[in-house]
Each structure stands twice: as C-alpha cells, then as structure tokens.
C-alpha cells in the first residue's frame, strides 16, 4: 500500500544563476538556469517548458460608507512572455498563449526514473521596461515559471522571481544637474519677524546608498530659534482605469542644529539614501514611484516653509551616473544659486509607458542552439552535477529590493554569466505633481504661508 502512495514526481524546481554580486538583471541580460526533476519511476511527459515573463498588477479595495459596500479595483500590464520548450509530445498540440518561443535543446518525452537537470537560457528584451517593485497594493515582477504536464495528472508548477533594474534613465541628460529653490516666511501668531531659506542639492539623480549633499542659507530674522529639517518621501500611485490609490512613505528624517534668532547661517548636510529603497518608476502605466526631498524650517504653531526637490533614485549598480566628490558637489550648489534657480523636472524625458512585446524575429539570433535530438535521453542529474546535491543546485536569494553595494564601474555591462554544463545529447496623482513641475518658474514647488 505504501508503494502505491509513493509519488512518482519526488522533486520539481527551477533556479537561475546570478550574473553579478547584487543578483540583478537588466535589458539585454542573459538569464541561464535549470529545471530539476526527480522521479521515482519512468514517466511519459506531454510537455515540460519554462516561461520567462514580466508583468505589473495593482489591486485595492475601498469602502463606501453610504452604500455599505466594498469596491475593488485592479489592473494588469504584460511586458513580455518568453517560452522555451524542453519536452514536447509530438502527438499533442502545442499552445503558446501569446508567448514568444525561443530555440533550445529538447528531449524525448519518456523520462527514466532518477534525477534529471534541464538547462535553459533566455535573453531579456530591450525596451521600456520598469524596474522590479512590490508593495501592498501593487507589484512589478519578473518571474521564471516551469510547468510539467502529464496526461490525466494535475500540472506541476515551479516558480522563482528575479530582480530587474531598468536602463530607462541612461539617456536622461539632467541627472547631474543641481536643483535649487528659495522661500521666505513672515511670522504671525506667537512669533514676530521673518525667516528665509535658500537650498540647493548637488544633483538630481542618486543611486541607492548614495549621499545627497544639500547646502542651505538660512536667515532667521524672527524672535525664535528655528530648526532646519530634511525629509525624503516616497510617493506611490496605483492606477486602475480612472481610479487611483495613493500611498506616502517617509524614507528618512534629519534635523540640523538650531538656527539662532536674529542670525544668518550656511548649513551643509550629508543625507544618506538607504541602500534598499525602492527605485523611481515613471515608465509604468499603472504604478508610479516618485521621491521628493523636503527642506524646511520647523516653525512652532505655524505651517513650515518648505522647498520640494523631486529627485530620481537609481539602481546602486548602475555605472552611467558618475559619483561626485565633496568639493565638486559644494561647488555645484554654489554655482546653481548664481544661475537659474530652478531646474526642469525629468518625467517628460522618459519614454512613454507602453506594453512592450518583443519582436519574434529578434530571438532566433540570440542563441546558438544545439542540434535537437528528440530521441536522445535527457541528461541525468549526475551527468551534469557529478558531486552536487539537490539541495545545493543554484542560488536563489531574495529577489526584490536587493541591498546593493557601491559599484566599481569598470565597464558598462554586467559580468559574464556563469557557464552551464551542456547536455551530452541534444487623479491628481503624484505624477501630476511632477508634470506641474515642468513650469520652470514654479519648480521646485514652494509653500509660503
């Protein structure tokens, strides 16, 4: 009886090889991995394939107190779907469901008992693809999915996500431009006099883990000591049709030394961006992620005068953004005050968000496939990994929001992927805030109360 209950498929999984220390992929990256199948008896398989796909989804629920109902909103975007077939029963009709089929090694559909490893390889598309993102109300994910199909059996599925970082900001010219702004506040209740602030950042685009350098000139002509404060906010906007969901998150807060009453002072501050903060996303139709640095004076019993700097957060391993030294950074902030005080926002420079589908003719040139031998057996586990165990096949670190190290930037691309063994046989949303900032006379936004 125990023998009858023994499952014929003992193990089924998929994993991939990281191509850099941050375990990230980008446009044009080659993604290689393997499907691991361990079976207890000989099996006939109708189909075994791997899909590589990128997609975005949003979903949230809102309560209507008047009608005592809950309304749900959702939306979906598909960026690409690639498919590599490893086993195909010739008598069964293949269904691709819109996937672009890529060439690769295939095997006969009778698989003998034991452990087997099926290598696969994809090249990620070029195009306007957003970076990975995952929060409560929406996500942008890139995923590998293996499926094992047998007659009169439930389809077995194995999945693993990988982190994608977009190259969309490579061609934006203003990432190194400083931003500046100024504001003055006249005191009323409980405080007399006035206070003014001029502030400038060293640039507009920053990598994860990088330091924002802000230089501020404060003239405190009021009757109180005032504190200069900084706050980096992340603004998330989720869209489903004409409906929007907004979420704000504080990334960090910093406080400088007090500015004494009837005094003038210049303050230079270094503000470190967390290495695991979500990236700026402006090229997705249903998810926007923006970052705003607020520089403001804390005025008791009144609204705080603040200057808003929309900045762009880039992947920590992107080498196209040069790092500035401190001397140059402070020189930039001083120079920008003597020139035009406002810099244009960058959202209009991004490619328009659109569903990207790869050109089918593109993919045959991406591979050098081995000759197909449908009569040959699939490689056994020991053929490909003579000394490894099933528990040590490949690396699967946490896929989203990687903690990124500082880049060495020796070259533009990624390191070469690890070599594989080959088988022997063959609203008024936050976006509106950015768009409103395109008016150079009002950017960055200031509040004067």
UniProtKB/TrEMBL annotation:
Gene3D superfamilies xrefs: 2.60.40.640
Record-level GO cellular component terms: cytoplasm; plasma membrane
Domain Arrestin C-terminal-like: 191-316
Membrane-spanning ranges: none
Gene Ontology BP annotations: nervous system development; protein transport
Family designation: Belongs to the arrestin family.
Designated name of the protein: Arrestin C-terminal-like domain-containing protein
Gene giving rise to this polypeptide: LOC113572933
């Amino acid at each position: 009886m125990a023998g009858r209950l023994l499952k014929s498929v003992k193990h089924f999984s998929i994993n991939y090889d990281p191509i850099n220390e941050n375990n990230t992929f980008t446009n044009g990256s080659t993604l290689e991995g393997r499907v691991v199948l361990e079976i207890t008896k000989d099996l006939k398989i109708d189909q075994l394939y791997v899909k590589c796909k990128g997609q975005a989804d949003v979903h949230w629920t809102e309560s209507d107190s008047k009608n005592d109902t809950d309304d749900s909103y959702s939306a979906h975007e598909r960026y690409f779907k690639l498919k590599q077939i490893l086993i195909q029963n010739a008598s069964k009709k293949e269904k691709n469901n819109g996937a672009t089929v890529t060439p690769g090694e295939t095997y006969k559909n009778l698989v003998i008992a034991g452990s087997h490893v099926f290598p696969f390889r994809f090249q990620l598309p070029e195009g306007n693809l957003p970076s990975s993102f995952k929060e409560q109300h929406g996500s942008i994910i890139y995923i590998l999915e293996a499926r094992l199909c047998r007659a009169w059996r439930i389809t077995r599925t194995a999945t693993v996500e990988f982190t994608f970082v977009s190259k969309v900001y490579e061609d934006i010219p203003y990432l190194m431009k400083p931003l500046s702004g100024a504001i003055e506040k006249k005191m009323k209740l409980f405080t007399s006099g006035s206070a003014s602030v001029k502030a400038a950042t060293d640039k507009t685009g920053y990598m994860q883990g990088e330091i924002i350098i802000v230089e501020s000139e404060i003239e405190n002509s009021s009757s109180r000591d005032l504190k200069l404060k900084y706050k980096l906010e992340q603004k998330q906007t989720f869209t489903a049709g004409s409906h929007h969901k907004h979420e704000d998150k504080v990334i960090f807060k910093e406080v400088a030394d007090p500015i004494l009453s009837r005094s003038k002072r210049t303050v230079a501050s270094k503000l470190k961006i967390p290495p695991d903060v979500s990236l700026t996303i402006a090229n997705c139709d249903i998810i926007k992620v923006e970052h705003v640095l607020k520089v403001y004076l804390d005025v008791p019993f009144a609204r705080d005068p603040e200057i808003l700097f929309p900045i762009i957060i880039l992947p920590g391993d992107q080498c196209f953004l040069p790092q500035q030294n401190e001397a140059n950074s402070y020189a930039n902030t001083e120079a920008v005050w003597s020139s035009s005080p406002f810099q244009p926002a960058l959202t209009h420079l991004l490619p328009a968000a659109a569903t990207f589908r790869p050109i089918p003719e593109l993919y045959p040139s991406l591979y050098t496939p081995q000759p197909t031998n449908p009569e040959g057996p699939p490689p056994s586990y020991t053929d490909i990994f003579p000394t490894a165990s099933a528990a040590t096949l490949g690396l699967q670190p946490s896929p989203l929001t990687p903690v990124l190290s500082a880049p060495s930037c020796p070259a533009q691309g990624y390191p070469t992927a690890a070599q594989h063994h080959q088988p022997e046989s063959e609203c008024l949303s936050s976006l509106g805030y950015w768009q409103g900032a395109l008016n150079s006379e009002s950017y960055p936004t200031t509040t004067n109360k």
